[in-house]
Amino acid sequence: MKRLLLSVLILIPVFWVHAVEPSNVPVSFNKDIRPILSENCFSCHGQGKTKGELRLDASEHFLKAGASGEKAVVPNQPSASELVKRILSTEKGKVMPPPSTKKTLTAAQKEILGKWIAQGAPYEKHWSFEPIKAQAPPEKKPNPIDAYLISRLKKEGLNYAPKADPSTLLRRVSLTLTGLTPSVQEMETFLADKSPDAYEKMIDRYLASPKYGEEMARHWLDIVRYADTHGLHLDNERQMWAYRDWVISAFNKNQPFDRFMVEQVAGDLLPNATLDQLIATGFNRCNVSTGEGGSISEEWVFRNAVDRTSNFMEAFLGLTGGCAVCHDHKFDPITAKDYYSLYAFFHSAADSPLDGNQLLLAPSVKLDLPETKKKIAELEVEVSTLRRKMEEEAAKLAYEDPALKPAKSEIKVAEDIWFEDEFPKGSKVFASPGVPLELVDAKKGKVFSGTKAIRRSDAGLAQDVCENMSPITIQEGSVLFAHVFLQDGRLPKSIMLQYHSTGWLHRAVWGDYNIIPWGAANTTERVNMGPLPSAGKWIRLEVPAEKIGLKPGTIVNGFAVTQFGGIVFWDKIGMTGKKDPATDPAQSFAAWWQQQTGRDQPEAASDVAILIKQGPAKTTDKDQVNKVKAFYLANYCSATKVQMKPLLTKLDELSKKKTALEQSAPGTAIFRELPKPRDSFVMVRGMYNKPGEKVEPNTPAIFPPLKKADPKKRADRLDLANWLVSPEQPLTSRVMVNRFWQQVFGTGIVKSSGDLGTQGELPFHPELLDWLASDFRSSGWDVKKLIKLLLTSEAFQQVSTVSPELLRKDPENRLLARGPRIRLDAEQIRDNILFTSGLISFDMGGRGTMPYQPPNIWEPVGFTGSNTRNYKQDTGTNLYRRSIYVFIKRTAPAPFMANFDLPNREALCAKRERSNTPLQALQLMNDVQHFEAARKLGERLITEGGNDAGKRIELAYKIILSRFPAPEEKAIVMEGLEKHIARYKADPKASALVVKVGESKIKEGINESELAAYTLLANTILNLDETVNRN
Amino acid sequence: MNHQRCSGNHRRAFLADMGMGFTGLALGSMLQSDGITRADSSLSWAPPNGKPHSNPKAKSVIWLFMNGGVSHLETFDPKPELDKYAGKSISETPYKSTQDPEKLKLARVTVVNDANGQQRNKLFPTQVGFKKRGQCGMDVSDWLPYLGNCADDMAIVRSMYTTDDNHGAQTQFHSGRHMLDGEFPTLGAWVHYGLGSLNDNLPQFISMGNREYWNKKDGHYLGPMHDAVPVRVAPGSPLDFGSPERPVTPDEQKLGFELVGKLNSIRGVEYPNDPALAARIKSYELAFRMQRSLPEVMDFSKETEETKKIYGIDKPASRDFGNQMLAARRLVERGVRFVQIQHGAGGAGAWDAHGGLKNNHSANCAKVDQPIAGLIQDLKRRGLLDQTLIVFASEFGRTPGTQGSDGRDHHIYGFSVMMAGGGIKGGTVHGTTDEIGFHAVENRHYVTDIHATIMHLMGLDSRRLEIPGRKRLDIDHGRVIPQILA
To answer: Which of A802, A914, A1016 sits opposite B256 (nearest CB)?
Structure first.
């Protein structure tokens, strides 16, 4: 074996050596020249680094004179070209590449460089940046794919291998399209169908199956790095499965792939976006995130945007953008400015930069599940009935408006409370930036009064903002106040109170005056209140309103509590001031209505809400006024609160119930824009706190320009998405057809399917790739059509056996002179074991499932306090759902999938490894879910296979491998089976142990020792190489 | 294997090439490649053939890694000046210049303004005494009395540095690269990639103990087949999926694997040249042999009480690590190339003594001191120490200054690594830190210098292992430390 393997290893595929070509064959810059320059020259004479003022990566540079005054390339004149002189020189200090780089050019490379210049030095952009060339296939074939492949094979003196037999083809197609082997029934149907289009009809049956979407989605989920946890720190659960289900359904509906991409990138910006289109934007929420205390929000705003930008580039454009985060990419023509212009599209994400370890981090949508909808509707009816009753009661109460009293009421100093356990009704509360608002009780933190306080921990600038409060008028002598508790040992650098009147222009700062640079210093926009208050106790902060420029009569309708670093608690926030009952909205109906004029009243019945909004001046009808008044007295009047209390309490209970129900309903994270976009900059050396040149959202300059829907407006993600699928875009459809090709044939036409940039491999069949890319686009991005085209090619239908000669010539099967043979992916292996046993559940969608798993996989990596610290294994059908639904914990993926190279979903994975390890063998032999499946399959063999052992063995082969066993195989299996039967007959105890593995029950009436023997037989066949391969 | 049913040349050749089958345990020193083929278009490149590039001094590595960061100041690098200036701010001592911002530039920060990984200014006195140990008179902490007995077998490098001031430095010590650079193969993976098997019954790269989630893989671009096989020191189930869910007889197991092997071989006739099929057949053979041989390795019933005592297995504190050390000996005895053992779970590693350093380190030392000394001693008397390299390291050292009232913070500018065994000059102390143990000053070594030294002793030239398209930097390869070589 050793000899054999080694001899295979050192053989070089012959077709690679065609570099030296006769001089009349035109030299191609992309095929022949660029690889030499890229490997040997670009690191000093490329983008970003231009030693001797020379760049060799683009013609506009190398045709000009460099620092030496000589032109590197003079077309048609090799001997006048400095490049040629330098590579041929033997002189130290002159020869290129310099010996210090340890790079040398071969004689053949030098020759072809010379030949290229002699031919006029024709230049091409990197192949994938050139427009897609749609040309006619080289010869007539029913399937154009074969025309391209055959014409190439002919050049190598090869031809296609014979067509594989029908049962091999059936299994190959079924696994490709559904990830599952064919059922025995499908096998019989297909083998019996002698019509000429039997193969095509079979493909159509699988394309129509809902299992098709599940198989196709799997590959896309590797691209978008889908998982069910956040990935860092606590690695808590993240609710996003609706996005995964959306992907499955999009493939099943055969949604045109351009729409599929547009909705993921910019579904939220589509006119009248549907719930599905919003769910699709979860694409941009699949990134790894953290909720670690002490993280800097600003930094994570940057990092999340970088992650999303890089994922966008790699997922759709097949370009690895990582380098350009820190500097201009030396090889790809993507400058740092290009990168950050693209980043600007993702930089204004509305989601909090830190995940707060939350299950469902806003922005999110609640799923439209009929069950929840019904319950909420019922509660809403109850609430409105109760409200009506309250207003009826309130209307009967005696009330005299102080504003209408002839005598002036007594003016008292009183407190207005804006925060005590909660923020005012109808106000809008958000964090900017920073983890979402956290309210803690005394058990989890410090509370000054009531039951809850605001807690915030951040390493940088962070604030909680309350906007859109009911307007409050500043009185003479009003004093704003808030209670604060600074945690000892985690002091902030400064804290700040900020108020909104017509703008956010009123600030009071304690501690480091300059660290929060907002507002003009030493004006009322930023008032220095002195040092930080003492830590470790509650302190009441007071700010006379006038001191920060809030003059009597000014309206305040928002406030914010801000800190720089540290841990800070805030409680009981408000204002003390003189209160005239005649103008106090809590006492005077007239004052209240005046205050509420123009504001929405979501709690009022719709007719009353309209009246309140239009205001007292426009409401003259007495009945109407009374309706509004009843609403006021029922809900807001301090004088009637006591009488209303029992009903108010009941209302409170109902709304709490409704909130709880809404919150518990599953949702999914979506992508949204901040109302006001963040300014974006080139970040110097990729550092989050080193902004350089300002940039606007735009696409990289190398590509056809972005077309804005509205040229006057800033470009948005919808413009970007439309650009992505525009006919001029050279990369998108190439990237996609290449990935589908890889899925079907095992290796992409461009092998590095994640990188079509200059560091990636060249396409093996460039013309075929372009034909496919152009056909895919003009078909309306029809995925099912494309897949069918690939599967109906003769190339796909060949036998996969290989001769030593062919293997030597083409070890990776790039020429396709044989059919593809691929080891199944992790999910396919598990799904097939479940499917063939009959245990599988085809329930679709929903939260990730937790099937059998060895002990101590989650626990050792779990942080205390993580909600995914302990693995809670499911029971019943959830043990047997398809693997695409298995819960993925990023820091500890299921070992039965990781063993077979499931990527960890932290970053995009365009191509999985296909490893071959002894741990895989042990898993297939011993894993409880495999062995249980073998037991159920054994049961099927006994109950469905008749009484004859030979027939049962045949059935096993039919179920698992879609074929009949060869006589030789049957004999070996029979011999093994007989040994097992003899052993278990003699040892009932051992039989009992075998048949009890797993949770499922044994069918009644089955003999235990016989079942044990067939279990081991099934286990053997489930372990075969053929079983875990698509042959 | 039964060849009677076979016919035809292809078939016979295929089956004959198919390794040892399941009929017995194949022991012996068959240096050969790992059976993984890698087709590549590069003209000059071929994967390693499993043979060392030069004459090896050692055959196996036992890599002991203390998660969290061991204080060099309380183990192998005593600093009396710390006691002299205890409680003083560094800026008030003659060593003010150690905190010169220029000198602190080494740090490549991952978490800015992290609560940990900060400058700690107030000097913290040494928390333990030191004694001169062995003929060589090496300074060893009183928390490591047993290791002190092995002073003449140990070489200490006191002048290590790294650049990640957070626990990503764990990955960095294994791969040589800072976390922000991406993921790169670890030292164990390179050794596994470069060297053939000494025993086809066992995986050649095994890990034990606690690996944090960010530090769980080894192969990276070399491929997952070069990841360590995680093994537990628990009789019964040392591997995930390592044994069936129910008791089975060896015969029954053999029958199962044998049937799979026979049936695969029949199909092999159709794919006689498919390296993946050949590798699968081999992997089943190794799985079968591992399943049988690993429980035996982990079964200590034939070890004498005296031996177990040497490892401290009789004491509750040192039992767990002692068991792992004994398992390590049994593994290298059977030819395993690289045994990686990481000590200390919890948070970012048990040694991460931000507070209560005295309690933390005295307790952790008590857990590992006797087991490691026992390992050195046991290997020595069995004549195995000469061919086994032992390394004791952690991601960084700890600050000379105090964190809180009684802890030390992460410290990347100077710390110690201990090596012993094959090719190492015992009784050596190499390199120095400054008077307060802040900066490595003489013979400074980045972590990959340890890699280079190990590769050298294993007879490997890391430059010859490079694969096309994955150019490594000079710093990735490191430089051999000749002063500690025998």
So the answer is: A1016
Q: Which residues of A touch B41 (CB under 8 A)?
A: 12-13, 16
pLDDT tens digit sequence for A476-511: 899 999 999 999 888 999 999 999 998 899 999 999
Residues comprising chain B, all counted = 486
ipTM of the complex: 0.74
Q: What is the pLDDT of residue A866?
A: 86
| Amino acid at position A336, single letter | A
Fold of A19-124: Cytochrome Bc1 Complex; Chain D, domain 2 (1.10.760)
A829-871 pLDDT, tens digit per residue, is 999 999 999 999 999 999 999 999 988 788 767 777 789 989 9
**Token pair in block for residue A147:** 């025309």
Q: Where are the domains of chain B?
A: 56-231+337-354+394-486, 237-297
Nearest to B230 by CA among A898, A1014, A964: A898
Compare A669 and B183 and report the one with higher pLDDT.
A669
Question: Under CATH, what is the fold of the domain A412-579?
Answer: Jelly Rolls (2.60.120)
Three-state secondary structure string covering A171-207? HHHHHHHHCCCCCHHHHHHHHHCCCCCHHHHHHHHHH
Task: Please name the residue that has the structure tokens 């507002």.
Answer: A519
List Cα–Cα distances, A890 to A893, A908, B216, in angstroms. 6, 13, 12
Question: Of A33, A175, A31, whose CA–CA distance to A109 is shortest?
Answer: A33
Q: Which amino acid, residue B60? A: S
Q: Where are the domains of chain A?
A: 19-124, 228-241+261-366+671-724, 378-410+580-664, 412-579, 926-1030
The closest of A836, A842, A800, A829 to A817, measured between CA atoms, is A800
Proportion of chain B in helix, strand, coil states, percent, rounded to 5: 35, 15, 50
Per DSSP, what are the bridge partners of residue B411?
A: B397
Residue in A673, A640, A3, A643 with CA at minimum distance from that of residue A349? A673
Alpha-carbon distance values, B30 to A107, B290, B464 (Å): 41, 17, 22
Alpha helices by DSSP H, listed for B248-349, are 250-268, 275-297, 305-310, 316-333
Q: Is B180 on the interface with A (CB under 8 A)?
A: no
Q: Which segments of chain B have a pLDDT < 50?
A: 1-43, 112-113
Q: What are phi and psi of A788, to 5 degrees?
A: -65, -40
Other Cβ atoms less than 10 A from the Cβ of B144: the count is 27
Question: Cβ–Cβ of B239/A901 closer than 8 Å?
Answer: no
Residues 6+ apart with CB under 8 A from A995: A935, A1002, A1008, A1011, A1012, A1015
Contact present, A256 and A782 (Cβ < 8 Å):
yes
Report the distance separating Cα A769 and Cα A222, nearest Å.
Answer: 22
Tell me which chain B residue has its CA closest to the CA of residue A688: B112
Contact A127, A766 (CB under 8 A): yes
Q: What are residue A1029's DSSP bridge partners?
A: A823
Chain B residue numbers with beta carbons less than 8 Å from the beta carbon of A864 are none
pLDDT at B236: 62
Q: Hey, how many other C-beta atoms are within 10 angstroms of the C-beta on A613?
A: 15
Task: Report the C-alpha dihedral over residues A694, A700, A704, A710, rounded to 10 degrees.
Answer: -40
Identify whether the C-beta of residue B371 lies closer than 8 Å to the C-beta of residue B377: no
In this prediction, residue A248 carries a pLDDT of 98
For the purposes of burial, counting CB atoms within 10 Å of the CB of A28, is it exposed (0-12), middle (13-18) or buried (19 or more)?
middle
Q: Can you tell me the distance from the alpha carbon of A715 to that of A719, in angstroms, rounded to the nearest whole number?
A: 6
Q: Contact A931/B36, CB-based, under 8 Å?
A: no
Could you tell me the pLDDT band of residue A9, with boundaries at 50, 70 and 90? very low
Task: Say whether A459 and B112 touch across the interface (CB within 8 A).
Answer: yes
Q: What is the pLDDT of residues A229-284, one digit of tens each?
A: 998 888 999 999 999 999 999 999 999 999 999 999 999 999 999 999 999 999 99
